[in-house]
Amino acid sequence: MDTTELKQRLIDEVESRKDELLELCSSLIKIPSENPPGDSTEISQFIADYLGKFDISVEWHESADKMYNLISTVGNSNEGKNLIFCGHTDVVPAGDRSKWDFDPFSGEIKDGWMLGRGASDMKAGLSGLIFATTILKRLNIELPGSLSLVIVPDEETGGEFGVPWLLEKGLVKGDGCLIAEPSSPRNPTIGQKGSYWFELEVFGEPGHGSLSPLAGQNAISDMVKALLEVQKLWDLTIEIPESVKPLIEVTHRYMREVETERLKYIDVFEKITVNIGTIEGGTKSNVIPESCKVQVDCRLPFGITQEEVTAILTDKLDQLGIRYELRRFGFRSQANYTDANDPVCKAIVDNITFVTDEEAYGVMQWASSDAKHFREYDIPVLQYGPAYLPTIHGYNERVKTEQIITCAKVYIAAVIDFLYSK
């Protein structure tokens, strides 16, 4: 089998049908699938109907009320390897519509841009995965293995009812996975920092405000002391393991040469980031507050565990002599990555170069994603998808239509390389 010739044939097919691909993407954006509330009924039915036009069957798995996971498989599932294409249908809320320059659910194409909520995160990538899968089916391509299209409804709020739910129930298995999350055009993300979210509540003793600080115990004042210690997590020097230093170094190169406008963030990969996201406390200005609560988002580099961060925090807070409770919630993971030489990474990176004739290489991401769940189940994974990164989760979200088409070409070519590789 001449795989290069087959890949080129499939790439040409995507090019000839690119208007259909963009129409699919536009249709997905037009369906509001904000999470919260997380109702994926309409968009899931649309996708299932679309796949059904090409005789691709769909398994429905409802993980929570109106949250539907869809699984479709093409190729030979009885032998060979299985590649997973994974994408999520949910998007973050559009927010204040008056701050958008266009209808966030228009799915309009203007001046070479696809417009709307989810254009970058991640309906453009999702449409590419779906479209590539249908092309393989439409052309009756005989694959020496199988491709599983896994579409989940819950990623933007932590993903409890999406990827981890499917993996835990054994509904998804594979030898490699591509998630079409937004990325740089030539630089897929092959590693992510860890996540450490916690709620800190400090307790005081109420009293009349006119007697403070002589009376009572002011929980807000004690919280100020506590937050000074929390923020010092950034100052810790973390010993990065030798095994991941090459990944950190190539990511530094990426920031110096590609994402130069974000060069000021280059230290983020070796530090614990600290974001105090919410704070509440007290009842009235003339009442000494008996409680103050904050929620904090920390991202952890390689070289430190969640348990070690907990130990550091509790040691520092105990020394303050305050009464407090530390509660974990939300995203939880250690820093994680897939080796750049793994077949699934090579399949994507090599085909970015094959399609674009430009150098490509994998880098680290300073945030977290569903990728960690696949790695927990020993499924190598990376992320690559069309995006205009400055607009993700913001107003006027958009992506270049050219990127949508390029990514779809990479996806379909990568299937061939991955399934035919030993």
TrEMBL record:
Enzyme class of the recorded protein, top EC level: hydrolase
Entry cofactors: Zn(2+); Co(2+)
Question: Which stretches make up the Peptidase M20 dimerisation domain?
Answer: 190-324
Show the InterPro entries listed in the entry: ArgE/DapE, ArgE/DapE_CS, Bact_exopeptidase_dim_dom, Peptidase_M20, Peptidase_M20_dimer, Peptidase_M20A
- Write down the Pfam families for this protein, in alphabetical order: M20_dimer (PF07687), Peptidase_M20 (PF01546)
EC number from the UniProt entry: 3.5.1.18
A GO biological process of this protein is:
lysine biosynthetic process via diaminopimelate
GO molecular function term, any single one: succinyl-diaminopimelate desuccinylase activity
Name the reaction it catalyses.
Answer: N-succinyl-(2S,6S)-2,6-diaminopimelate + H2O = (2S,6S)-2,6-diaminopimelate + succinate
Q: What pathway or pathways are given for this protein in its record?
A: Amino-acid biosynthesis; L-lysine biosynthesis via DAP pathway; LL-2,6-diaminopimelate from (S)-tetrahydrodipicolinate (succinylase route): step 3/3
Database matches in NCBIfam families: DapE-ArgE
The similarity annotation says: Belongs to the peptidase M20A family.
What is the name attached to this protein's record?
Probable succinyl-diaminopimelate desuccinylase
